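Changelog-adjacent note: as of this version, every example in the card shows the full chain rather than a window. The one below runs 793 residues end to end.
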Amino acid sequence: MADTGMLLNFDLGDAPLKRQVKYTGGRWRDRKHAQRSANKDRDGPLSGSNSTPLPNDRRDHKPSDDERAGDDERPTKRQRTHGDARGHSRPDTSSRSLSYMTGKLPPGSISTAPRHGTQNAKPGGVTSRLFTSNPTPKTVFEDPVEEVEPAKPSNAPLSDEAENFHALGLSRRIAQHLSAKLEMKAPTSIQKNTIPQLVKEDSDAFLQAETGSGKTLAYLLPIVQRIMALSQHEDGTSTAVQIHRDSGLFAIVLAPTRELCKQIAMVLEKVLRCAPWIVSTIVIGGESKKSEKARIRKGVNILIATPGRLADHLLNTKVLDVGTVRWLVLDEGDRLMEMGFEDELKSIVGKIREDALKESNKEGVKFDTLPQRRVTVLCSATMKMNVQKLGEISLQDAIHVTAAKADNEEGNATETNDAVFSAPSQLKQSYMIVPAKLRLVTLIALLKASFARKGSVMKAIVFISCADSVDFHFDLLRSTPAQPPSPDEMSLTTNTVADAAYITSPANPAITLLKLHGSLKQPVRTSTLASFHMSKDPCVLITTDITSRGLDVPSVDLVIEYDPAFSVDDHVHRIGRTARAGRPGKAALFIQPGCEEGYINLLNSATSAVAESYESTLQKGFLSPVTLPKIEKGSEAPILVSDRQSPNSRAEALQLHVEQRLLASEKEGKSKLLDQARQAFRSHIRAYATHVREERSCFDITQLHLGHTAKSYGLREAPGGIGGGPSRRTFKPGHNHKPSAQKHAAKSDDRDERSVDRRADHDEIGTADDDAARRMRMKMMQATNAAGEFNIG
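Full-length structure tokens:
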């Protein structure tokens, strides 16, 4: 039979076949260039062309697992280059403006070449380049000048032997108790100027002093002294009449946060050990109202409260009689106004002044030694006098008391404007200009260098802008236990206190890591703060601004502002957690190159900081090998850091390790850490846009590189959904989130925690001529509960 088919003759040649690669994602122009490069490699080099492949630009193409495994066979994308004056080729930066909006990394930021000095690195794996494409800072770094002699502490107790508490008008019983039991030999400057005024006079007072100078005792001691005088003679002997807990409520102390209320109560409890017949108690949100009512019913002489809970008790607790109240103390008064407690304060002041002042109690005891009018004491470290509403609400004929003097002019406490405050003179402050990509490794290097010597730093506090970011950094820096704790071993601090990783050293092989923010339940917050107080080992507390006001934690040697404060006032309060009562301390501030460098000019009016290079911090922190914890079980082996690596190589290996941890958790279906990183990034960007209006030019979100910022969270590209509102917030399946329950929580007495968490509204409340962003935040404040969209502490 004749063959009617067609004979095909193909010459395949001797060259091996190469599979076709289809490029997806990214921009059309990048895909076109990559396809042309692949065609050139397949067809052979053209005459006069350079056949050497250039570094890949992978910012718009996310490789899959199969592509990453077969990276050796895949043709590489060609990066567009152009020559400079010397004939050298450099990456094209025409897409830099687009990268700020999309969060994609610029050319050269990611490479597929294996790193030197890392073992078990996957061939073709994506490696971050931390030291390329970083902006150049404008600040000129000068050589540090060594001080000839340390600065004299400005908030230490007075050294003059003639200055003692008895000379200020306090009884010998109190003075001896302070000296013998509390080891307080002499008062501070603010105590010296305040105690005689409040003991002898009945006028209102406005106290101004730097942090850590003893303002709490400055107003507590006169109150205790005058109440004790009802039961004692001038010589300290007891009278026939003795005050007890049912004699009446004489003083109310208001503080903005629960932690500060507990600290005031703890200080007052120590003072009242010399007068056990005087009873104090505390009422705050998050505690049982029933037990609080029972304590009030039994009787109390001094009450410490948050404004939200006290306003609730004044309305609903009939046994709370304020007719005998002589003192109303507003601690951290500026913070009370900033957190939106104006309505509660008006209600409290109006309720106290509503009834006539009682001159005796139901038992007929006359209050001769107590003030014959209601005295209001307003105190703060950075009280700006433009908060005139609070003065109009509470103060009448007030005297202005500072650490230097006391002015008795009427109304002086509401007419001074924008007083400038300084940090303690013995506090050593520095700021580091750190590019966004290097923020995480620089933070770890700073902590590692701080704990490199035993006893050099015992306790450190790291301030971060929002609660989501606190959760992520805590879970990232904690040491993963070999086995999760059983239900019987679970405690209140199981998820807030853990052993630290990355920052340990041979001198301090065990460092405790803690976290604290306003979204935690009150018992957890109390237990965590107590653990930080009582810890005898080196420890690091990662927290929001909830711990920036008034808290006195012993042995805090270092304060790190990883995210700059939302205002200069908050900055002064943050660094005031160290160098207290004459002790030395250090504070470090992280800022980014560019517009944020102008923030230093604003700080110079209140503090004095020295510029330091982040490179020197990396050199100190990564001078010794970094011990990296194991990645989750079943994933690849961790990167081994060689002794021959340089500090910069160790920093890159650490960054790669963090990124692999996040990817490994996603591959195993346990993407908790990865989800935390994405949510923390979104909350951080939203919080970045909430600086006060006067400082917003220094924190311009349009100049923030989203891609580089994402690298500081271990992400290889910026996640979306940054502009999502409250309706886009997702909830865990299986949880019942009823709108009625949320509405009830928003109206509950938990106002103090809700206001603390909404840090985004700081210094924005009460400003009439703000922009649309402020109005959006105000709507969100009214619509969401304590764990709202921003979740900012």
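Structural remarks: The radius of gyration is 31 Å.
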